[in-house]
Amino acid sequence: MPEISTSAPSVVVPGNLDGVHRGHQALIEHASSIARSNQLCVVALTFEPHPAQFFAPDRAPAPLCTLERKSKLLKAYGVDTVHVANFDRAFSELSPESFIESVLIKQLNAQAIVPGKNFHFGKNRAGNTEVLVHLGKKYGLKGDAVSHVSLGEEVISSTRIRECLKSTRVAEASQLMARAYDIEGIVTQGKQIGRTLGFPTANLDEIQTLVPSQGVYLIAAYLPGDTQKTIRFGVCNIGSRPTLNTGKAIETHLFDENIDLYGRTLRIAFLEHLRDEQRFEHVDALKAQIAKDVEKAKVMLSSVSPHLWSLLSR
Asked: How does pLDDT run across 240-249, given as a tens digit for each residue?
């Protein structure tokens, strides 16, 4: 689909949209139905930096997506254009009506807007969905809020996903996101201890998003820029490597692969938690456990749905 100018008549999905989880996907799906019926384009309006990062950087939560990854996922789910608003002091002081007039109407040519139920905007978060619908009528803007999406008794949210990832519950995070959570970084030169154990690993660095809690995981991996879009599988250890006492690391061993990854970007998606990190009495015991982890992971992989990594290469 060709890029659509943000001046084209649009239906706007506003929000931080961090993680592009099932709640966000429901907004996009609803906006897409409106767009098809009214010949509009779907625009996602997001903010950079995250308002929490702007107001309280020391207390801001770690993001679930980089801006680049978020933009690609939004388009994969049906957004035509991603509009990134620079969240600075001037933007934070816009009144709710100024936000509607200057951003939604003048910049994005919005004809309709599809916010989540907890969307707030304008100075001091004075605007909410009710204010948006009320003020929007003045400009002919149709407001159509979408109810929260829940899993079990709890609403799906970025906060809930972070809680899952911080407690090794990556399978639950996958349910909330309708895909496996992924991170990416640069493969750096490690101590090559894994190679001496018979399980060479890629050490991931320069990660800009939330890293799951310590443990061993079944993962899917992708090399951005790979023209073949090959998905590989393996195990990843996140932790302090207590047996070898070599410090914290994120180490990924790819099954049956022997490729040079140094200096390349690697994206990994967490499919299942295998076990907690533990200390072994000697290196041979660690080596034996890694072999068990690999075999267990390969067995588990046969029952994991491919939809969990279907967007890994997007």
From this structure: 765 665 667 8
First to last CA, the chain: 15
CB distance 45 to 37 below 8 Å: no
Cα 100 to chain centroid distance, Å, stands at: 27
Q: What span, in angstroms and rounded, lies between the C-alpha atoms of 307 and 312?
A: 10
Q: pLDDT (tens digit, 9 = 90+) per residue, 222-245?
A: 999 999 999 999 999 999 765 665
Given a contact cutoff of 8 angstroms between Cβ atoms, the answer to whether 256 and 237 are in contact is no
How far is residue 276's CA from residue 239's CA, in Å, rounded to a whole number?
9
Please tell me the distance from the alpha carbon of residue 264 to that of residue 223, in angstroms, as a whole number. Answer: 8
Res. 21: pLDDT tops 80: yes
Residues 6+ positions from 67 with CB-CB distance below 8 Å: 46, 48, 84
Query: Within 13 Å, how many C-alpha atoms sit on residue 187's CB side?
Result: 22
Q: Which residue has the tokens 């050490």?
A: 203
Alpha helices in 178-271 (DSSP H): 193-196
* Residue 3 confidence (pLDDT): 42
- Given this model, what pLDDT does residue 278 score? 86
Please give the helix or strand (H or E) that residue 91 lies within, else none: helix 89-92
* pLDDT for residue 4: 43
